[in-house]
Amino acid sequence: MEVSIVGSGYVGTTVAACFAELGHSVVTIDVDEAVVEAINDGRAPIHEPGLGALVAEHGGDRLTATTDYGVAPETDVTFLALPTPSNADGSVDTSIVEAGAESLGAALSGVEDHLVVVKSTVVPGTTEDRVEPALTEGGADVDVAVNPEFLREGSAVADFTDPDKVVFGTDGGRGVETLRAVYEPLVAEVDPPVVETGRREAEMIKYANNAFLATKVSLINELGNICKAYGVDAYEVADAIGLDDRIGERFLRSGVGWGGSCFPKDVAAIIAAARAKGYEPELLEAAVEVNDRQPGRLLGLLDSHVDVAGKRVAVLGLAFKPGTDDVRESRAIPVIEGLQARGAEVVAYDPVATENMRERFPEIEYVASAAAALDGASGAVVVTEWDEFAALDDAFDAMAEPVVVDGRRIIERRDGIVYEGLTW
User: Fold this and answer.
1) Which of these is catalytic: 262, 347, 353, 399?
2) pLDDT at res. 174
3) CA-CA distance, 216 to 198, in Å (whole number)?
4) What is the mean pLDDT of residues 259-274?
């Protein structure tokens, strides 16, 4: 099929490359000329495992990019994969999606039998109340569907090619048939569960999914904090309860908390949406509160062993999770802020996220290796579980005061260091 995608961020680029791999001809539309040039040259504009190879193979061929909405009428279906950032109160800012929909509507004016699919994360009713009117204002009279994404940064390509589920939200008619056709090569290959539902239900499924997972992480962190107080290894407890199929083993790694572009934004959005309807979502609020406390608990353990004022402290890991260079809502941000408030001299290392964090904290020192960060440090905190941190070994010997507080259980206890696990 001929597919167009508005937006070339994490979602848009990944979906575009994966659709091209399925055999579709895909064109992405983006306002950033540098991103457009990169895709046409076969270079992925973001760091994501497996994505570079797909863009290198298909970029400039079955996968192209442009700044011109005028290509949309030449395609069978257009996906809107534009950002929906948070407002100050946590609610969703849909202005970018609406502006994109209006521009798309102008391009599709007079076009028949075209489907527009909202892939952006929006609260229930947004497609009906905001996206469709924006398309109409632009001049289009098209079918509109919702197809939420469930792509985790660091494993987005694998999540697309082997999904837990695929969700089609339509109001009936041709929309569901077109979505079935787009995903037919994937469904034929891996046979994932396909959920066909209404548009509002599809919008809500994405939020419910992320809210449930974020709350599960906060719950295991709360239990982990209690385990720590009693001298109990939370990971051994988690291994046991994960054997209960009602609980499951995934998302039971307690630690310094969740961040990134999805969990914080989506939980805040559904809290704001609930309040707008007069409901106070106390459990979700508690999940956020527990998450926000974890960096402080990490620093509290460091405080119990060393006064960091005027001393060098290493922060290992800046990305919100391994496998990505994304630092949005990374737990490293409050950790660095807390160290700065204590008067520490912060030195940081991450395999891929240094430049993104440098934009947020240009004043701290960045080094090219974990060993360089540890050299002369009077303390170290582990914020991201990059595999390389498990093999530091002798690097700890170069620390001035070998105090290591591990927020991700990636470092092994060893002689010669004072080791604290956050929840074990």
Assistant:
1) 262
2) 86
3) 27
4) 96
